[in-house]
Each structure stands twice: as structure tokens, then as C-alpha cells.
Amino acid sequence: MRAAWYETQGPARDVLTVGIMADPTPGPGELRIRVAASGVNPGDIKKRQDAFGYGMPYPRVIPHSDGAGVVDLTGNDVPTEWIGRRVWCYGAQSYRPFGTAAEYVVLPVGQVVTLPANVSFARGACLGIPAITAHRCVHVAGSVAGRTVLVQGGAGAVGVCAVQLARRAGALVIATVRSPPDEAVALEAGANHVVEPGADLVDRVRALSPDGVHHIVEVAFGANLATDLELLAVRGSVATYATDQPTPAIPFWPLLFKNIRVDFLGSDDFTAADKADAALAVNEALDAGWAGMPIAAEFSLEDIATAHEAVEAPRQRGRVVVML
């Protein structure tokens, strides 16, 4: 099979290789996907760069955790009804060496989800990490039905999914965005209200939710925590999946006095049950007509280094996908 891989970490053009590897064969409880599209996530970039200093977890890594394609082979204990099914997958390169940047990927059947007929492979390849992270961020502190949810960064990959999933769960959703074009993205995803950051952000959000915000999905924990604290109702909660500062200061007593719950959420370590619940909710949203995330650019496997660079320095809103 054609595949892209790296055997040392560093800049994309220095370490990524495209070549031929042996076709993988599914074992017990596994199936093989003929990959049509491979989604590129910021986490894939950080692993290749060794951004967190963990080093090479395996001698050779095929990058990318998310993808979509058609099942073409199953392990001997997996129903053959899977063969020929359009699917999306997640976690291919989470605690595993070989991800979706290849013509074939083998995965446990529990990490493979039927792709609704109205969803393209390119959009299906964008679902895994962002959508599952968003679902956990929305629901980790309990039901949001009838509550006010603030999604910080509501036009980003996780933000768009969080807006859609929170709205479907019965929340009143307020999204923050960085620019007028992003406002349309958040509104299309289902936001009830959209606000741009500014000196009067707290006043504008309070005007929409006078009793405070019940739950916040947070993309920039360090930068936004003080503002979040002002906006949260007593016994409110924050679910954060990213930060602009690696060691943000924590205002302990103000958080304590309001009885604020804070959850730090990394998708690699969600439970299998949480991931399955998220996949079900995502498919329900897609079946109901949600378009998923916008695509910024598509690249060939041979241009995977350019695809990684497009994620590192984005020029437009949307996801980057490698097509095979």
C-alpha cells in the first residue's frame, strides 16, 4: 500500500516520507478500511513535532487518527456485513503506530462507525477527534437541557461540533467568534447567539444570560479563565480541551467561592463508552441534516507535508484533509 510515515520527529518536509508498505491484515476483533480521506488534526502535528517532549513512541509512525473510507476486509470474528460499508473512524494513531495516512488502516471494530449516506468521505474524515472531544466537553458535567452553554471559539473544529451538539441537547448556545465570517459558521452550526471578543464581552453575554452561564466549552483556558469566572453562574462548570498558555494561573478562591467545576479533557483517554456515545450523537446530528465541518483544503498523499503546513499556518477557516 501507499503510505506516509516518519521515523524521526521534526518539520514536515524533513521527516515525512511517502512510499510503499505491506498491506495490513485485520486480526481478531478488527477490520480493514480502504481509506478514501484522512483528516489532519493539530494533535497529529504536535506528535510529529514532538511538541510535548514524549519522543518517538514507535520506530515508525503513520500519522493521523481520523479517516473515512470503505471496509474491505474483516477479522475472522467480525461480521462480514461490514464489508463494503462506508465508515468513519477515530483513534487510529492513539496509542497505535499506524494511522490513516495510508491506503489501508486496520482498527478494532469499536473505533469504526457507519458514515451516513449524505456525508462525503472528506467530511467524514474530519469527525473523530473534534466531534468526540466536543461531545465530551458538552456533556461531561451533566445534562445541558434548558441550560445556557457558552462555546468559546465557536467557529473552530471542536467549537462548531460543540455548538451543534449542545443545541441538539436542548441548551441555549452562545458562541464567541473572532470575525464576522466566523459568525456565519457558528450560526449555521446552531448557535442561538454569537458575540465577538472585546472589552464589553462580559456585558454582552450577561445581557443574553442575566443569571449567568451554566457551562462553558473552553478553547483557550489560560487567556479566558478570568472572563469565564465572571460569566459563570454559581455551581457552573468549565470543560477545557486546549490552552494558549501551558501553565496558566488558577484563581483558586474565586473558583471555590462559586463552586465551579473544571474538567480537563484529552480525547485519547476518554473511555470507550464515552467515545461510543459521542459517535452515536454525531451520527444522529448528521442524519438530521447537520453538514459537519467545513473543508478548507484537500491534498494528495504525495502532498502531505503541504497539508501539515496548512494546519500549522492556516489561511482560512476549515479542516485540512488528505485524499487517497
Explain what this protein looks like in three dimensions.
With 324 residues, this protein is α/β, with parallel strands linked by helices. The protein has two domains: 2-127 and 293-323, Alpha-Beta Complex (Quinone Oxidoreductase, Chain A, domain 1); 130-268, Medium-chain alcohol dehydrogenases, catalytic domain (Quinone Oxidoreductase, Chain A, domain 1, Alpha-Beta Complex), CATH 3.90.180.10. Helices cover 31% and strands 25% of the residues. It is built from eleven helices and 15 strands. The strands form three sheets. Strands 3, 4, 5, 6, 7, 14 and 15 form a seven-stranded mixed β-sheet that branches. It is globular, with a radius of gyration of 20 Å. The termini are close together.
Which short descriptors sum up this protein?
324 residues; alpha/beta; Quinone Oxidoreductase, Chain A, domain 1; 6-stranded parallel sheet
Could you list the spans in which at least 5 consecutive residues all have pLDDT below 50?
Answer: none
- CATH fold category name of the largest domain: Quinone Oxidoreductase, Chain A, domain 1
Rg of Cα set: 20 Å
Bin the helical content.
25-40%
Distance between the termini: 11 Å
> How many distinct folded domains?
2
Corresponding CATH architecture of the largest domain: Alpha-Beta Complex
Record field, number of beta strands: 15
Provide the residue-averaged pLDDT. 96
**Sequence of secondary-structure elements:** EHEEHEEEEHHEHEHEHEHEHEHEHE
Relevant CATH superfamily of the largest domain: Medium-chain alcohol dehydrogenases, catalytic domain
Overall CATH class of the largest domain = Alpha Beta
